[in-house]
């Protein structure tokens, strides 16, 4: 079919996509459960339903109430979370959903917000739930105590008190004195719950082996540590023992294979907070570093058609299966008992999560021409095939621009990017262009369906994007731009733009640029360092590393390091401030001329709203054309997980801004 006969991808199509989430095989592998999210009728949220695949066919299991999968109770029963009009705030309603059919039956109500649930045996579970360190046993309150505390909260609703850092987190807002606690749940004689960890202890990674619960944790009253301990709770005896307590590594992603306890561990000494971890074994209170692939565990290939998540790794038999960000795509690797890896799946696209059973691997995949679907393949990677077709109709008869790879060299590195050609492309005419810059900076672009860029291509733009020095997927040394922000990365983007304009008919007077987070930093940097763009769209950006360091949720740990300040340096010294200011776009805003749109959310705690406000005002006082759009109730994830109506308005604002300045 000719391009002209195909319909364009529209901004509002984001409300038509279905987003699979949270894959989990039943213990015997008969069923594959997951949930799908889709925009609700008003576009103010997402509705989630449970689906199950049996014998290769997906079947919808819930429809009315919002439902999310939690855990398989047994081979035939899935535990799900649901909320009703009668659900109390701060509690979790759990239901049992039988594969034999029928309505989900209420199981238990937990008196806390559930984060993780693990089964130890039929009548004993381990859970991680949210507590207030100042009132850690509120879960034991009777109705009278609950009412009294609610009345007290209402009296103080106009005040927020913070006395620790971090005191807020992106997506969770103010979290002062909130901790994730480990609980034991006994069901033999009714519902009995016991908190196992201290009031100031924060539990992170959890894994179980029979009646033993292994967990990483960190304890603080004023300042959170980046290092953690590893403990074991023995449910049969009720004892907790220390497994590792040297506090010399950040330890994540515990997993058990062939009776041994493993983890991902980084000392962060060479490359800072983003340093790639080793696979390590924990035994006899010692940490044995085994291997460090020069690639990232998990998926860092960015797209805007993934909503919720799921497992990035899983153990099956004597192998550990994990997602790996390899250059510009997500691969699936397995590791044996000697931690030798085998590549099982290595094709273009983005894979946000997976699960594994005895003979199969299921994974969610975004390809260049299609939003997310569930795929499955054999345990050794054989015969990958798609299981679902949730988004077929949304892209049917649409113009989908396929990425054209463009190789180039810059700053001594061989790099590559991609170009999306507009609907009805004619090599004999000139087109406006849009350079898109990813976040991170340890993010990566790849050949995955990206809604906003497809909209622009359908709208008549040549869209181009690349992975520059600082991007993920090529190891620590390539990704390390600490103390180099705005130098080699900026030059990479300028060289890439030159290459695109040399090879494709982009009107040099009508080139726009957009980016968010680190990409937003780069838009602000562009404003003070180049006039080549006719319009800029800066989203969830950075203006000053000084203000960011002392406001952002990860500020004191992440931001100074990115500017070359050592992990143990005095953040308040003149030398540290000089480094932070050196890489701040605000320092170079004088003389900026490019019309600039700012998109920011008032609950963004990663790059707080004042960052966008500072840069906008720096341009406004110079009478530069500028516009700041503030989204209320949204956070750093606006473009990927915001309310559907807000995601539509955001993309409309950017597109209108570019249309205005390329007309």
Summarize the structure in words.
The chain has an eight-stranded mixed beta sheet with strand order 32-33-35-34-36-37-38-39, with helices on both faces. It is an alpha+beta fold. The protein is built from twelve helices and 39 strands. Among the domains are: 18-111; 112-243, no CATH class; 394-544 and 584-662, Alpha/Beta hydrolase fold, catalytic domain (Rossmann fold, 3-Layer(aba) Sandwich). The model has no long low-confidence stretch (mean pLDDT 97).
Key features?
about 675 residues, about 40% strand, five-stranded antiparallel sheet, 12 helices, eight-stranded mixed sheet, alpha+beta, globular, Rossmann fold
What does this entry show, briefly?
This protein is an alpha+beta fold and 663 residues long.
Give the topology.
Blueprint: E1 19-25, E2 31-39, E3 46-54, E4 57-60, E5 67-74, E6 77-82, E7 92-98, E8 105-110, E9 114-121, E10 124-132, H1 143-155, E11 168-169, E12 173-174, E13 178-186, E14 192-195, E15 201-209, E16 212-219, E17 229-234, E18 239-244, E19 250-257, E20 260-266, E21 278-283, E22 286-291, E23 296-297, E24 313-316, E25 319-326, E26 329-335, E27 341-345, E28 354-356, E29 360-367, E30 370-378, E31 385-386, H2 392-395, E32 404-410, E33 413-420, E34 431-437, H3 451-458, E35 462-466, H4 476-479, H5 488-503, E36 506-516, H6 518-529, E37 535-539, H7 545-549, H8 555-562, H9 574-582, E38 596-601, H10 609-620, E39 626-631, H11 638-641, H12 644-662
Parallel strand pairs: 34-35, 34-36, 36-37, 37-38, 38-39
Antiparallel strand pairs: 1-2, 2-3, 3-4, 5-6, 6-7, 7-8, 9-10, 10-13, 11-12, 13-14, 15-16, 16-17, 17-18, 19-20, 20-21, 21-22, 23-25, 24-25, 25-26, 26-27, 28-29, 29-30, 30-31, 32-33, 33-35
